[in-house]
From TrEMBL:
PROSITE patterns assigned: ABC_TRANSPORTER_1 (PS00211), ABC_TRANSPORTER_2 (PS50893)
Protein name: ABC transporter ATP-binding protein
Domain of life: Bacteria
Protein's organism: Comamonas terrae
Domain ABC transporter: 7-238
Spans through the membrane: none
Keyword field: ATP-binding, Cell membrane, Membrane, Nucleotide-binding, Transport
Length: 277
């Protein structure tokens, strides 16, 4: 199923107040994402990746610049945008079926259509037979599948993923990456993935957006001209992965001036480079 709306981010600036002083979090972010594209965003902790997703999904309204979906300004949360967090955030007292159905709470669909959509999306993430199971009866990977189904059940134009596999073991993570790729190809949905894992970013994304911190801004966008499915052990895959990693080398970082204003507090949390390869 094709989705027709592109996403445009223009001149985006975001700041918070810290002890009465302005702390810039995002600065002059410009990004165009075509309908149906899969874009990965990588960067150090504190570079504003998750804040960027929150602005796209409409969870925050105070910023400068524009966030446009299909040419229309994003003003608050909407059914055309879904989000999956690192923690599945399922309701422990609800079954898998009812957790997925929560994604249709404001959809206004007839009951029969809701039930059909829930069945289809449970099948989409491969959880047939677990409809009546509760979250405590599921593994971490299965719980994330439920969260993905809940985010997709409205058939949004854009799915935002904030470190969705960060808490999973390596084997489960690799399997769910393949499942996410399959869903993306099957549904034709726009996906934006935030991750610390450069290999994951290259494995899934058609482009990798590299961000740098303080304030968060786009350093470079690296295209990934590799056909799907991708082979992690191939020389071509390694070449793209290493090109992204070079942006975080001491030489690459030396080219990026830190724009933190001198009058801000100096005891801000340290940045940790946590990239898995």
């Amino acid at each position: 199923m094709a989705h027709a709306d592109s996403l445009e981010i223009r001149g985006l600036n975001k700041r918070y107040e810290v002890e009465g002083r302005a702390l810039p979090v995002l600065q002059d972010v410009n990004l165009s994402i075509a309908a149906g594209e899969f874009v990965s965003i990588v960067g150090s902790s504190g570079c504003g990746k998750s804040t960027l997703l929150r602005l796209i999904v409409g969870l925050e309204s105070e910023y400068e610049g524009q966030v446009l979906l299909g040419g229309r300004p994003v003003r608050g949360p909407g059914l055309e945008r879904g989000i999956v967090f690192q923690e599945h955030r399922l309701f422990p007292w609800l079954t898998v079926e009812k957790n997925v159905a929560m994604g249709l709470l404001n959809a206004g669909l007839p009951r029969a259509a809701q039930e059909q959509a829930v069945r289809e999306h449970i099948a989409l993430v491969g959880l047939q037979g677990f409809e009546q199971a509760y979250p405590h009866q599921l593994s971490g990977g299965m719980s994330q599948r439920v969260a993905i189904a809940r985010a997709l059940v409205n058939r949004p134009d854009v799915l935002l993923l904030d470190e969705p596999f960060g808490a999973l073991d390596a084997m489960t993570r690799a399997h769910l990456q393949d499942e996410l790729r399959r869903i993306w190809q099957q549904e034709g949905i726009t996906m934006i993935l935030v991750t610390h894992d450069v290999e994951e970013a290259v494995y899934l994304g058609q482009r990798v957006v590299v961000m740098e911190p303080r304030p968060g801004r786009i350093r470079r966008t690296v295209p990934v001209p590799l056909a799907q499915p991708r082979e992690r052990a191939s020389a071509a895959f390694a070449a793209v992965r290493d090109e992204v990693l070079r942006e975080f080398s001491p030489a690459g970082l030396a080219e990026a001036p830190q724009l933190l204003p001198a009058d801000l507090p100096t005891d801000l949390p340290a940045v940790h480079w946590r990239f898995a390869v």
